[in-house]
Amino acid sequence: MALLRNSSIFLCLIAVTYSASVDNYENSKVQLEEYIQNKRNDINPRFRPLYHVAPPVGWMNDPNGFSYHNGEFHLFYQYYPYDSVWGPMHWGHSVSPDLVNWKMLPTALLPEEEQCFSGSAISDGDTMILMYTGHAITDVEPHFNQSQYLAFSDDGVNFHKYEGNPVIPISPNGSPDFRDPKVWKRGDDYYVIIGSKTLDDRGRVLLYKSRDMINWEFLNVLAESKGDLGYMWECPDFFELDGKFVILMSPQGMAPQGDRYKNTFQNGYIIGSFDYDTNEFVEEVPFQEIDYGHDFYAATTTEENGKRYVVAWYSMWEVPHPEDVDGWAGAMTIVREMSIVNNRILMKPVEAMVNLRDGVAADGDVESNEVLEFGKAVELLIDSDLNQKVDILFDGSEGGGKVRLSWNPENRKVVVDRGAGDVREVVWSPFGSHTWRVFLDSSSIELFCGEGEVVFSSRVYPLGEWRMVNESPQALRVKAYNLRRSVPE
Ligand code: FRU
């Protein structure tokens, strides 16, 4: 009897403690939203994007949980609201009807004993399930552990963490680097891939399967570096595209090779085939960078209406983030639609980007040395004679950062040059259109060449508004549109 009484007191205590911690968590969420609303007034708007998702205040890195649920696209992100540098990770949250107009929602996940590292989402009927990495600090070397957590939502706004977390406590080889789950459903089965490394520091992707999202069976290593693709693969993704299977990942630790792999960390993909009976992936086309610009990392995809969309962190690790003195840092790229042609992933801005056009800003020939003046958000369609040089300078009407786009018909390279040797370049062999489609925002430039076979995404920080100077020896044909705002200020 005494035993029964003691154990029921004990159960009561657990229940009280549990509901107290739920209350604390809910209170912290309310306080955080108040903090964000107040702090927004202190932001300097000079570099704030008009049509790229950016954190309302504080720091943003990887896109997370990119998904379509109950009629809306959801885009979560690694978020630290209290400073414009990386800190204990939360999940910020934006939604959009069309991948172009974005609304901000309350912060979806707050760190507790675990930081909420990158992960993914699935729409399961009316429930949205997030799977993310819980990053916990430990007393023993290497002083952290990473395991996989779940959170659920019935309304797509409020998320509660699963009480039985973590659902995958350790990696198969014991490596603490075990993160960024990407989950999908096929028939009645759930699958997840997770980024990790071998014990001799080669990046790899691990494949798991489950019937209920809770109990996971490790199937195999989907792919791993033979030594040439870095020491750790972050943010893996895996999907079917145009009859092929693609592993998209962000390898850390690849050495630069000529023009390639010049960013701090890389983002690229391997094309191959996959068999759901054997769970074997066979590589057919080796690793290629997906975007050739300075600022593109942790890309992640989702599928809707038979289209595969990709978005990436529009920034990079271990580089200056000039907007941080303004109270925020980091952004997302515009969303692109993917396809495979000639063994390469093409990226095109989603069709709905044309809905941002708000009047023609220029239309006609732009002579050598002619200057055009624009606002802060512009789209340009540029046609040139590719047998001659192209050299276009974009700078700020009041100075600040500049960027030069050029084409050299001799080596057939497109070059994006931010000055002082900060150059990205690649050979371009257009197989269709020769047009350059350029998106300028308050602190960024995205260049889509031709059909999207070569794309550069780079941040650049002009002061004032955008100017364009045609420094080419030839006249260029330019059609430009002002773009309207599609994200919160
Ligand atoms: C990639 C990454 C992920 C990790 C997250 C932490 O940029 O390092 O591997 O989950 O950022 O913020």
Looking at CATH, which topology of the largest domain would you report? Answer: Tachylectin-2, Chain A
**What's the mean pLDDT score?**
96
In angstroms, what separates the terminal alpha carbons?
63 Å
Strand order of the largest sheet: 22-33-24-29-30-31
Q: What would you give as the CATH superfamily of the largest domain?
A: Glycosyl hydrolase domain, family 43
Largest β-sheet summary: 6 strands, antiparallel
Query: What is the subunit organization of this protein?
Result: single chain
Q: Which architecture of the largest domain per CATH?
A: 5 Propeller
What is the count of β-strands? 33
Tally of distinct domains? 3
* Unreliable parts: none
The percentage helix is under 10%
| Beta-strand percent range | over 45%
Q: From the alpha carbons, calculate the radius of gyration and give it in angstroms.
A: 23 Å
Q: Label the structural class.
A: mainly beta
Overall 3D shape: globular
**Main CATH class of the largest domain:** Mainly Beta
Q: Could you name the key traits of this structure?
A:
single chain, mainly beta, Tachylectin-2, Chain A, Jelly Rolls, 3 domains, 6-stranded antiparallel β-sheet, 8% helix, binds beta-D-fructofuranose
Overall description:
The protein has 489 residues and is mainly beta. It contains 1 helix and 33 strands. It has one helix spanning 2-39, and strands at 58-69, 72-80, 90-96, 103-109, 115-124, 127-137, 144-153, 160-161, 178-186, 189-197, 203-210, 216-224, 232-241, 244-252, 268-275, 280-289, 297-304, 307-313, 328-329, 336-341, 344-349, 357-366, 371-373, 378-383, 390-396, 403-408, 413-417, 423-427, 436-441, 444-449, 454-459, 466-470, 476-483. Strands 22-33-24-29-30-31 form a 6-stranded antiparallel β-sheet, with no helix packed on it. A hairpin with a 2-residue loop joins strand 9 (178-186) and strand 10 (189-197). Bound molecules: beta-D-fructofuranose. Beta-D-fructofuranose is lined by residues 61-62, 78, 89, 117-118, 133, 179-180, 234-235, 297-298.
